[in-house]
Sequence to fold (489 residues):
Amino acid sequence: MIRRALILVLLSAAGAAHAQAIYTPPPGQNLAGVWLIEGNHSAVKTLNGKLPPMNETAAARYAAAVRARKAGHPDFDTIQTCRPHGFPRILFAAYPIEVLQESRQITFIHEVHHMPRMVYLDLTLPKLEDMDPNWMGQSAGRWEGDTLVVDSQGFNDVTTLDSAGLPHSTEMRVTERIRKLDANTLEDLITIDDPKTYTKPWSTRVTYKRQPGARLKEYVCTDSNPEAQVSGLATLASP
Amino acid sequence: MRMRWVVCILGCGAVVSAAAWAASSDVVDGPLIRPAVSSSDPRDLSGVWFIRLYNRQINSTLGRIPPFTDHGKAEWDKRVKAEKDGTPIADASAYCWPHGVPRVMNSPYPIQIIQTAGETTIVHEVAHNIRHIYMDQPHPASITPSFMGDSTGHWEGDTLVIDTIGFNDRTWIDEVGVIHGKQLHVVERIRKIEDGHALENLIRIEDPEFFRQPWYARITYAWRPDLRLSEYVCEENNRNMPVAGHTVAK
Fold:
């Protein structure tokens, strides 16, 4: 015990000798810390609590997804086979998120699937047609006062927006307005613009609570999910 | 002859534009011009780095082969033989599990170091591995063994010293056959070298079950401000998914 205390004293003395340049954001813009979502967002609704304005094709896909989930065969759901949640679904996951804040980049580390999301503050998003679609898209952010505004695009169309099965296309653009409501509450106002799927842009809102002193745990989906192994073998066997 | 020229003109054009496209997609876009070397602050390790002289067999400073115990040597021989026989034994990465430490520090993919108050985080492009290194903290009194272990960090002068324990025994140290048990203790000493153009990681590896004595590996990484990490999803289409513990040839 004494030895441990001594080591800590020595460490802090060494730390004082050289100042390490760690970026400190202005207090209002400081989003750093570990956050956990409030409420259940497995079936995402609009700000008015309604189903998002789906076009006919999307409504049919959504209904099929809901039926499949009810029947116990949600094959549409990528996380069944340990593939990523995709964006923005990962924002609705009931797992902690750690925010790492630098002057030019804000990184969101999601405990679930240990998935990072980089929000670059010095990036102009390429044109959608120049982007290779992927699971998390690409994100560019900027500050408007104390609100972090993040534009994301460049998604594949394999994922759904929520666990229930809201669909989206590769043309989806997501805009987030992220701000602190108070020191311990983070709000993300999310707007989905996907004319191929929804008749008009729509928004939803989530809040997260600060988890003081929390550390992200190691989450390894492929270690605990035998279905993923089966899926891998199936992939291997099929052409 | 003329026909060949036509082919060459079209073909060469395609090659040139493909190369230009590949290069431009890696270049940092935006209003900020980033410097060619890391900042002059010796403790500012933040940014993207890329391994140099990558070798799938870990480069022990003692010569190629670490000082194995009989058990360590037998496990090495078994893996080398299985690979030679065309049925390699699958390591953690083949299952899309986290790669472990120091294995993840020896991957031919970029890494990004992020320094925030109380924590140094390393995000690895490969399989989106993430290392959380908590600064100036003792290890927790009780640790559940994990793929990436429990890491604490502190500065000794301008060297970041990372101490990692609490591993499970399901990752390897390299991609050939150096493996470890739960007693693995890794100490990394990371510092800037070559006027900020590169990072050196001197890795001390200790595990009395597999090695007769602690040994060292030295890995360096180039400063790569021109790169951003790309998405790498092992789980999407794992063509190397092991069957009965062995990686299956395609």
